[in-house]
Amino acid sequence: MSNSRQKILMCAPDHYGVEYVINPWMEGQLGHADRSTAHWQWQGLRNALTAEADILTIAPVPGLPDLVFTANAGFVLGDTVVVSRFRSPERQAEEAPFREWFEQNGFIVADWPQDVFFEGAGDALIDRGRSLIWCGHGFRSDLNASNMLEDIYGWPVIPLHLVDARFYHLDTCLCPLDGGWLMYFPPAFDAVSQRKIEAIIPLEKRIIVGEKDAQDFACNAVDLNGRIFMNNASEDLQNQLRAAGFKPTLTPLTEFLKAGGAAKCLTLKLQEHLA
Ligand code: ARG
Prior knowledge:
The protein is α/β, with parallel strands linked by helices.
């Protein structure tokens, strides 16, 4: 959609690991993520994305194993960023390095109250074709974050209520794509939110993801210029994506699934145009 090359923020997994449990994927995984495998998987994603975007990095910090999930750094639209306010105390120390990175890289940091939780592009997803923002709540970000984003950016924000703890961030179960397409796992949402999605996205533009693909983090995809980078997807889902005109590219990220993240979580798009 944009006329300039996308820029993506990533963080190398030098200090990555599963060191606490703040989502169901991390249960039973304490100390089980293999850092050297994580490194080559991360490098594999980075190399694949390099074909379509410039990769910028933030320095890894010892003691912050989830800093690799830069989708949670904040929410970027235009030159204004909302830096995340993490719900889990384990991740709150990430706010300072992320804020510093945005300040040093020319972003305007929007005012945001201390007491409203918001986990950035993990929960707020831009639907570029519709000029609207989908915003998840129920596990991490507060419902109130939706109103606040609307005030800051002037775009409509549609709150969606997440109800399955495995899909605690919106980007684990929903992915807006170019051309008005939307890939999502309906059971992750309450009935009212499912109706909201159906009211906005015409049936023929909905790509329904099944449970197995959802558990493989297929919705946690990075879409760039018609290509869709993802940990894994069934033949059926890949065929649906191809039929919609996209090119799925699988890049294994199993070490990061142990912490509850995959391709999209490991990236943050830095060029999102307001107009
Ligand atoms: N362990 C991290 C957490 O639970 C994983 C974050 C994944 N990020 C995402 N955007 N879904 O917070």
